[in-house]
């Protein structure tokens, strides 16, 4: 209990809104990458996460993530159930008597650090929402919407909330004891390289494997239908990511400033590196490559933004841009249909960013840790590797089990007819573009009456 710092509170409210904006940004990013007959379904999978995860979070998700730890594995779901004991009025500092103004005592409200507890609740909610939404990119054009909602709710409950507890729940902040990765392993994941990106990427891979390939893939090209959507989404993601990374400082301080800058540097470097790969490999740099490079850089710098200097951020961005640009081709080599490259960008980028903390962490950065290249030896590197590996394996296995359970009960995949028609029509009875009204062709490519 106490009186909140107004500057920190204002920054964290703004950061929460920035992170929420990332999910509509992701919806545009993913929506532009699919065909015209599936864009609404793709957008709906992201937007629906905003409603579903919000309800679960305020009921038990926050408590499961930040309640008192049960063996470092999961928080007590009952401690803050329904946000019990956190709803409060306005905190005020004590006022001394002055002239005709009487003295007044301080009005204390629940705090986590220097900010109202509810601001922290809201900030972390936005992380939970976008983590679930990220998974959807791996299963575009073929997953039943009802099965998506069930998968998302169950996965958030048994995977995201516990894993976020491992990574984000520090001893003595929201509960007496926190998660094992943050407090025992002491791996560094400032803003969610493991809890968000490796977690979502591994789940997307498992779900894609159980679901199977899209009809015609890989022989049929599945080209993005709206590249301006993709570019808009990438821009919104970059903008919102400042709340994601700099907001994770939970204060308007030097750490927020440092992470703001390293995020920018790594993202710019990754975009240029991706374009260079395209230029050498394909002969032309593309707008889709620029957007993908932006996201790869943002992903890779997420766990490491507090532990590197500018040179480290440049290195992480360059490596992420090159490696992720090459990694998106793995699905063709190994035959798994990761529709929108969740594995190649988020899983691979998350692993790279997490491991590179152990290499390029600089002692002058806010985390004050020495990586291998700064004389720190392999100590931090093995901690990063264990943290990344544990999250990857846990999320992949449990997501696969959830997907299999749905496949053999209510069904997971849309029918061949629905997939051919497009999920916008079959799942939502809508189309994104009314071509018929313009005298062109409709979303299924049939001639309109004007052309007849």
UniProtKB/TrEMBL annotation:
It is found in: Cell membrane. Keywords: Ammonia transport, Cell membrane, Membrane, Transmembrane, Transmembrane helix, Transport. One of its GO terms (cellular component) is plasma membrane. It is a multi-pass membrane protein. It comes from the Bacteria. Residues 10-433 form the Ammonium transporter AmtB-like domain. Gene3D superfamilies: Ammonium transporter AmtB like domains. Involved in the uptake of ammonium/ammonia (NH(4)(+)/NH(3)). This is Ammonium transporter. The lineage of its organism: Bacteria, Bacillati, Actinomycetota, Actinomycetes, Mycobacteriales.
């Amino acid at each position: 209990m106490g009186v909140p710092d107004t500057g920190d509170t204002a920054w964290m409210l703004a950061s929460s809104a920035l992170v929420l904006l990332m999910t509509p940004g992701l919806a545009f990013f993913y929506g532009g990458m699919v065909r015209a007959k599936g864009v609404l379904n793709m957008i709906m999978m992201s937007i629906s996460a905003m409603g579903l995860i919000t309800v679960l979070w305020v009921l038990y998700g926050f408590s499961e993530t930040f309640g008192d730890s049960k063996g470092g594995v999961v928080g007590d779901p009952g401690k803050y159930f329904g946000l019990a004991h956190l709803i409060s009025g306005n905190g005020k500092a004590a006022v001394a008597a002055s002239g005709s103004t009487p003295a007044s005592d301080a009005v204390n409200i629940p705090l986590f650090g220097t900010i109202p507890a509810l601001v922290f609740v809201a900030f972390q909610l936005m992380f939970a929402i976008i983590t679930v939404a990220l998974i959807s990119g791996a299963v575009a054009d073929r997953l039943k919407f009802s099965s998506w909602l069930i998968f998302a709710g169950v996965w958030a409950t048994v995977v995201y909330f516990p894993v976020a507890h491992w990574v984000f729940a520090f001893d003595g902040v929201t509960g007496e004891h926190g998660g094992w990765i943050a407090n025992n392993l002491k791996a560094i994941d400032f803003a969610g390289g493991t809890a968000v990106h490796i977690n979502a990427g591994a789940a997307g891979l498992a779900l894609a494997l159980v679901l199977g390939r899209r009809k015609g893939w890989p022989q049929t090209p599945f080209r993005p239908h709206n590249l301006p959507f993709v570019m808009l989404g990438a821009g919104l993601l970059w903008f919102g990511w400042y709340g994601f990374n700099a907001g994770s400082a939970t204060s308007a301080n030097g750490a927020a400033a440092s992470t703001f800058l390293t995020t920018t540097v790594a993202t710019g470097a990754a975009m240029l590196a991706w374009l260079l790969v395209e230029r050498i490999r394909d002969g032309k740099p593309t707008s889709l490559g620029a957007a993908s490079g932006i996201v790869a850089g943002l992903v890779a710098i997420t766990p490491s933004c507090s532990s590197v200097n500018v040179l480290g951020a440049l290195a992480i961005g360059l490596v992420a841009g090159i490696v992720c640009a090459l990694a998106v081709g793995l699905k063709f080599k190994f035959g798994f249909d990761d529709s929108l490259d969740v594995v190649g960008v988020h899983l691979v980028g998350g692993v790279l960013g997490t491991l590179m903390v152990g290499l390029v962490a600089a002692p002058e950065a806010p985390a004050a840790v020495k990586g291998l290249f700064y004389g720190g030896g392999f100590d931090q590197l093995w901690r990063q590797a264990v943290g990344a590996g544990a999250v990857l394996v846990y999320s992949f296995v449990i997501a696969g089990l959830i997907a299999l359970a749905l496949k053999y009960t209510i069904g997971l995949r849309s029918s061949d007819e629905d997939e051919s028609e497009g999920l916008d029509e079959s799942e939502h009875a809508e189309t994104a573009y009314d071509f018929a009204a313009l005298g062109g062709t409709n979303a299924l490519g049939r001639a309109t009456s004007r052309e007849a």
